[in-house]
Amino acid sequence: MGLIARAIEAAGVPTLSMSSARDITRSAWPTRSVYLDYPLGHTAGRPNERELNASIMRDTLSAFESLSEPGAMAHLDYRWSDNDDWKDKVFALVEPSESAGGSSQYDDDRVARHETPQYQDQDDHAAAALTHDSEECLVCAGIDY
Amino acid sequence: MPTTPQRRQPPVDYIPRITAQYSGLGYGEYRWLESEDAPNWAPLSKPLSESKLGLICTGGIYVAGQTAFHFKDDTSYRAIPTDVDTSDLRATHFAYDLTDARKDINVVFPIEQLRSMIDENALGSVSPNAYTLMGGIYSTRRVVEELIPALVDRVLADEVDVVLLVPV
């Protein structure tokens, strides 16, 4: 996403990138960014907390006008919980002695990299087939299969 | 009884953790983007309260009726009407826990928050279409050659004043 931000900025449009992975965003180095110290999958807030999420957005957008150096990052003052135990668990190394047989060091809770569309609901699959059969969909751009 | 907040830990360093996990799983090496030059700077042309905002999100979000993303270097994108009913939005992805995004898509696609900002006069408007991507694309070349030119064209055609990017 950092590359996209940089390209849009180079085309003359000001950008602001939200981030919950500070080191990844720093490495990509977009023009303006705000860091929110939440677990991945919550870049813009917490589920069903409208007021909190609006507050986060208010603070985020204010960075458009407060950041003045290319590449600057603002830190937002929100905390996921009263303790930071969640940080110990993300992409955590499992000691070989703790895993079965001592062979696999890592837990992989991700899913395989399929090359076919992955629908959340099977009904969506049927709905997509319908719109594409009738050539209504003009907004699934660059589909490469 | 409320618990006493504990001292904060520093931000998670994802690059070493994810790199170690990927290599432990036998995946090819993921080359993290390291920009060497300072980014360009485009100044705001007007106050945010008068600005039209473009929104670009990764995280595999689509509207029911669109083709879903796939999980292997998907460089396509979707245009999401920003007046969408959020109950029609879906998310599928290989690399993050989707539980909360499926409870409330605004945690990764902050459209209700942006509507609130317009109501508060903190923001002028949101562009009629947002763009969503998959992310996690191994091929930087394909991002640079295929995805970025298409998105830049869209952003310029939309005549937005600012762009907000929300990666997962």
Brief write-up:
The complex is a heterodimer of chains A (145) and B (168). Chain A has helices at residues 2-10, 22-28, 50-66, 86-89, 122-133; strands spanning 15-19, 32-35, 72-75, 140-141. With 145 residues, chain A is an alpha/beta fold.
Your description of this structure?
- The complex is a heterodimer of chains A (145) and B (168).
- Chain A is an alpha/beta fold and 145 residues long.
- Chain A has helices at residues 2-10, 22-28, 50-66, 86-89, 122-133; strands spanning 15-19, 32-35, 72-75, 140-141.
- Chain A has five helices and four strands; from the N terminus they run αβαβαβααβ.
- A three-stranded parallel β-sheet of chain A has the order 1-2-3, with helices on both faces.
- Chain A is globular.
- Chain B is globular.
- Chain B has one domain (49-166).
- In chain B, strands 1, 3, 5, 6 and 7 form a five-stranded mixed β-sheet that branches.
- Chain B is built from four helices and seven strands.
- Helix content of chain B is 26%, strand content 17%.
- At the A-B interface, α1, β1, α2, α3 and α5 of A face α1, β3, α2, α3 and α4 of B.
The chain-level mean pLDDT of chain A equals 85
Which descriptor suits the 3D outline of chain A? globular
Find the biggest chain interface. A-B, 95 and 101 residues
- Main sheet summary of chain B: 5 strands, mixed
Give the C-alpha Rg of chain B: 18 Å
Helix content percent band of chain B: 25-40%
What characteristic shape of chain B results from the CA principal axes?
globular
Break the fold down into its secondary structure elements and pairings.
The complex is a heterodimer of chains A (145) and B (168).
Chain A: H1 2-10, E1 15-19, H2 22-28, E2 32-35, H3 50-66, E3 72-75, H4 86-89, H5 122-133, E4 140-141
Parallel strand pairs in A: 1-2, 2-3
Chain B: H1 14-24, E1 52-57, E2 61-63, E3 77-81, E4 89-91, H2 99-103, H3 111-119, E5 125-126, E6 129-132, H4 140-158, E7 162-166
Parallel strand pairs in B: 1-5, 1-6, 1-7
Antiparallel strand pairs in B: 2-4, 3-6
